[in-house]
């Protein structure tokens, strides 16, 4: 990858060709888990034009505004002229945005941050973050910006969120020759590398029975990234998530994909345990009969710190099959110290979500040991 800011910008820090950095990550994984990966368990990413979201600050120099990023290993920022890891459509929109910012003073004034989110459908949202109250004059110019560069614009300031056109994009992922439609909301989590996302989903599907035989419990379901395609492999899915807006988006995604076997519920992980152990009644479950579920699998995609809670891990051990997607191999390793007391690893894989970084995504499928 050719980038003028490489190794100065803190975004990309592995100064080696892609084959070498992949080998480095494979070795790191194998040392941590004491396992020799097979070729079919290693999933690679495009080396440029793969990232669907990013966040920047601003650098001002000689009356001109540039994007900036934190510098590598230092407590300061550097200006950048391009970011080749972004989807090409995002690179194009950012270039047009900077031209507009530098020619329209009310858009530039007290602007300190830019966020961008895009899809493989070439839809884009740009969020402009300010240290000032946004006026009607700002809104008029933001409308002009939206029309000129053909993307959705959101203005944010303390206590303000001004939406120009809409605050979501539509994404379409083709998974095993079938299209799935996703709404992705500004400010909510979405997978940053859509190419790797498709491979993660297809890996999981390849390890599940073709014909539905039982039910799935999904924790940390978000807005349904994994839920929608996996629904074809189970009779019923109970999907839980603590973030209210994510559950609302999941409900829309279920409707848009004409799926009728997913039950989304706003519950935390610990609340899910309480509900399924019948230790506590929840008003949110008043119309849901938990006794109709016959779970054979549990699906986990937790935050970077993993599960870590011993009560939750012991609850997870009750399931015959565990599907665990992790964005942090070290926290996964700690969770496996508990889970492997009752289960064995049947499948595992690595996903190179972020080339040119140390980051590594892992997928493990565990089966319960026979007594």
Structure report:
- The protein has 371 residues and is of the alpha/beta class.
- The chain has two domains: 53-169, Beta Barrel (OB fold (Dihydrolipoamide Acetyltransferase, E2P)); 192-368, Vaccinia Virus protein VP39 (Rossmann fold), CATH 3.40.50.150.
- 28% of the residues lie in helices and 29% in strands.
- The chain contains ten helices and 17 strands.
- The strands form three sheets. It has an eight-stranded mixed beta sheet with strand order 1-16-17-15-14-11-12-13, sandwiched between helices. The chain has a seven-stranded mixed beta sheet with strand order 4-3-2-5-6-7-8, with helices on one face.
- β6, α4 (136-149) and β7 form a beta-alpha-beta unit.
- It is globular.
- It starts with 17 loop residues before the first helix and ends with a strand.
Can you tag this structure with a few keywords?
2 domains, alpha/beta, 17 strands, 28% helix, 29% strand, single chain, OB fold (Dihydrolipoamide Acetyltransferase, E2P), Rossmann fold, eight-stranded mixed β-sheet, 371 residues, seven-stranded mixed β-sheet
How helical, in percent, are the residues?
Answer: 25-40%
Q: How many strand elements?
A: 17
Radius of gyration: 22 Å
Poorly predicted regions = none
């Amino acid at each position: 990858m050719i980038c003028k800011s490489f190794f100065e910008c803190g975004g990309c820090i592995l100064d080696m060709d892609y084959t070498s950095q992949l080998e480095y990550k494979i070795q790191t994984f194998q040392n941590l888990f004491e396992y020799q990966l097979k070729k079919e368990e290693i999933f690679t990413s495009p080396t440029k034009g793969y990232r669907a979201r990013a966040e920047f600050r601003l650098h001002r120099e000689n009356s001109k505004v540039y994007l900036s990023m934190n510098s590598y290993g230092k407590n300061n920022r550097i200006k950048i002229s391009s970011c080749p890891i972004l989807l090409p459509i995002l690179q194009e929109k950012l270039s047009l945005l900077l031209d507009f910012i530098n020619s329209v003073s009310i858009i530039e004034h007290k602007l300190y941050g830019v966020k961008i989110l895009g899809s493989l459908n070439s839809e884009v949202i740009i969020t402009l973050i300010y240290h000032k109250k946004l006026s009607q004059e700002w809104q008029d110019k933001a409308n002009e910006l939206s029309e000129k560069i053909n993307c959705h614009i959101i203005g944010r300031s303390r206590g303000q969120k001004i939406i120009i056109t809409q605050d979501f994009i539509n994404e379409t992922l083709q998974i095993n020759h079938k299209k799935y439609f996703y709404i992705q909301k500004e400010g909510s989590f979405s997978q940053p590398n859509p190419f790797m996302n498709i491979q993660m989903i297809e890996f999981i599907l390849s390890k599940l029975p073709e014909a539905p035989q039982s039910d799935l419990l999904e924790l940390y379901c978000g807005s349904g990234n994994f839920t929608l395609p996996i629904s074809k492999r189970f009779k019923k899915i109970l999907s839980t998530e603590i973030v209210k807006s994510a559950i609302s988006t999941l409900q829309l995604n279920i409707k848009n994909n004409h799926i009728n076997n997913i039950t989304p519920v706003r519950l935390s992980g610990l609340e899910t345990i309480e509900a399924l152990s019948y230790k506590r009644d929840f008003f949110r479950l008043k119309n849901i009969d938990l006794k109709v579920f016959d779970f054979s699998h549990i699906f986990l995609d937790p935050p970077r710190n993993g599960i870590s809670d011993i009560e939750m891990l012991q609850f997870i051990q009750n399931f015959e099959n565990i599907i665990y997607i992790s964005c942090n191999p070290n926290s996964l390793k700690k969770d496996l110290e508990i889970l492997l007391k009752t289960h064995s690893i049947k499948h595992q894989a690595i996903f190179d979500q972020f080339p040119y970084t140390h980051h590594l995504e892992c997928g493990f499928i565990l089966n319960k040991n026979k007594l």
